[in-house]
Amino acid sequence: MNGDSLVTYVARSELRSAVLRAVERDARSTAALRDDLDVSRSGVYKTLDELADSGLVRQSDGWELTARGRLVADELARQRTVDDLLDDEFWEAHDVSVLPRRFRQRLAGAGEWELYRNPARNPQYLERWAVELFREANWLRVGAQVYYPRFAQMVDELADRGVLDAQVIVDDRLVDEAIERYADGDAPSCIDERVADLPFSFTVTADLVALSLPTRDGVSDLDAVLVGSGDGAVELGRDIHDHYWDRAVPVEDYLATV
């Protein structure tokens, strides 16, 4: 392996990677691997010998992964997910460093991600999208750097009807710019609201998490939202919310200091 790690050793060869993925799905005979991968008999034998010598596969009723091979296959799958996630110009223009490292490290393995864009650069486009996407939620966790009137009204209406459990973190600059709106204290009682210094915006429901990362110059981007779905993405979103919730203060406490 010339000093390579096992992961690098497998990744450097398309055939080693393909054989490992094929065996990962279910045990395969040498003949089945040769037919499925459409490679020469000698190529399959050589690759299986390499993987077996590295302790990644073994032969029982067919070729199967060892425990070591399973871990390597998992890491290669994670790397493919990272590659897919990064294959977008979004990452050239946005600052992901605002997301604490332990959360960044979980992005790729946290589920399926896609970008929701604002093609017309219409200021109301993503607000309308958010209202439609989240109006069926029965619980909501929000970190807001930007005030969207229609979205805030929807949250209030759902909470008033008793169909929503909401925890909302408002960026302190947003409160400073509109003290009177928060000083009124007329938010529904079932909405728990706090204030913190937020470096980005997010929304979490039982089904998805939406992250709005700033551009590289620190400006809130209203034209692109990274949306993750699945249990892993929701768990990541809840952990992000908890991180900032624990550092936030109740609105009334914050107002008493300004």
Descriptive tags:
single chain, 258 residues, alpha+beta, two-stranded antiparallel ribbon
Question: What features would you describe in this structure?
Answer:
- The strands form 2 sheets. Strands 3-9-8-7-4-5-6-10 form an 8-stranded mixed beta sheet.
- The protein is built from 13 helices and 10 strands.
- The radius of gyration is 24 Å and the shape is elongated.
- The termini are far apart.
- A hairpin with a 3-residue loop joins strand 7 and strand 8.
- It is α+β, with helices and mostly antiparallel strands.
- The longest helix has 20 residues, at 67-86.
Please sum up the structure shown.
This protein has 13 helices and ten strands.
Number of beta strands: 10
Give the overall shape, derived from the CA principal axes: elongated
Specify the structural class: alpha+beta
Helical amount:
40-55%
Report mean pLDDT, rounded to a whole number. Answer: 86
Number of helices: 13
Major sheet attributes: 8 strands, mixed
C-alpha-based Rg, rounded: 24 Å
Q: What is the N-to-C succession of helices and strands?
A: HHHHEEHHHEHEHEHHEEEEHEH
Oligomer kind: single chain
Q: Tell me the span between the first and last alpha carbons.
A: 63 Å
Q: Which strands sit side by side, in order, in the main sheet? A: 3-9-8-7-4-5-6-10
Strand content: 15-25%
Q: State the low-pLDDT regions, or none.
A: none
